[in-house]
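Worked problem 6 (solution included).
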Amino acid sequence: MTTGKRSAGLLLYRHTDRGLEVLLGHMGGPFFARRDAGAWSVPKGEYEPDEPAWDAARREFREELGLEPPEGEAVPLGEVRQTNGKIVTAWAVEADLDPAAISPGTFTMEWPPKSGRTQEFPELDRVEWLTLDRAREVIVKAQSAFLDRLAEHSP
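Solution. The predicted structure is:
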C-alpha cells in the first residue's frame, strides 16, 4: 500500500482590533505569481514517515520563513487532504511576527519549461496577516478547515 505525501505546518494567529488574524504565505514561483485565490497556505512542508509531524512543522516554519518558530501553546488543528492527495497536519500558535522579518527559503526548478535552464524561487514570496474572512478567500481550499477549527477554539 502506498501512502500519499504528508506535510506539517504552523498557523500563527493573533487578536487585533480587526478580530482574529492568521499568518499565511503566498506560494512562490511562476505558477502562483499572478494568482491570489488558492495561492496562500499555512507555512508548511513535507516530511518523512519517521519524523514526528510536530518536529516537521517546526522545522518547516524555520525553512519557509527563516525564523525560529514561536513558543506557546500549540493547538492541534488536525489533518486535511488536499485535492492533490497530500495530507496536511497543522497546529495553531498564538504569536505576533513582523512579516518584514522573514527570510524565505528557496527552491530550484526548470523555468521556463523545457528550456534546460533552472531558476531559484522563494518558497513563499510574501507573508501577510489576514482576517479569517480574507484568509478563507485565498487559502488553499482544503486548508480552510484549519481556519474553521481555529475559530472554534478561539472565539
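Discussion: Helices lie at 53-65, 132-138, 144-153.
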